[in-house]
């Protein structure tokens, strides 16, 4: 079974929207603007980088999407 894909992002971000569109229903979306605990989780994964989206796939963390 495929590992879960998590996208940390924020509403209105064009790069988050591109990532969500590309991954579709395979991804779980977390809005870091509406959940401060999830923001902290994202910052741990990104080593403090405040840039979205942060995509976690197969245990690997990718910061940014589509030209960022």
Structural notes for this entry:
- The chain is of the alpha+beta class.
- The chain has one domain: Glutaredoxin (3-Layer(aba) Sandwich).
- It contains two helices and four strands, in the order βαβαββ.
- Strands 2-1-3-4 form a four-stranded mixed beta sheet, sandwiched between helices.
- α1 links the parallel β1 and β2.
- The longest helix is centred in the first third of the chain and has 10 residues, at 14-23.
- It is globular.
- The chain starts with a strand and ends in a 5-residue tail after the last strand.
Main sheet overview:
4 strands, mixed
What is the gyration radius calculated from CA atoms? 11 Å
Instruction: Bin the strand percentage.
Output: 25-35%
Q: Given the structure, what is the number of helices?
A: 2
Number of strands: 4
Shape: globular
| Strand arrangement across the biggest beta sheet | 2-1-3-4
| Count of the separate structural domains | 1
Level of helix content?
25-40%
Enter the CATH topology name: Glutaredoxin
> Overall pLDDT, averaged?
92
CATH architecture: 3-Layer(aba) Sandwich
Order of helices and strands: EHEHEE
Distance between the termini: 30 Å
Helix vs. strand class: alpha+beta
* CATH superfamily grouping: Glutaredoxin
Topology overview:
Layout (H helix, E strand, L loop, with lengths): L4 E5 L4 H10 L3 E5 L4 H10 L8 E4 L2 E4 L5
Parallel strand pairs: 1-2
Antiparallel strand pairs: 1-3, 3-4
């Amino acid at each position: 079974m495929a590992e879960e894909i998590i996208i940390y992002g924020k509403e209105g971000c064009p790069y988050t929207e591109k990532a969500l569109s590309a991954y579709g229903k395979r991804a779980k979306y977390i809005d870091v603007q509406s959940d401060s605990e999830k923001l902290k989780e994202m910052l741990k994964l990104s080593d403090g980088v405040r840039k979205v989206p942060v995509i976690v796939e197969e245990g690997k963390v990718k910061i940014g999407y589509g030209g960022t």
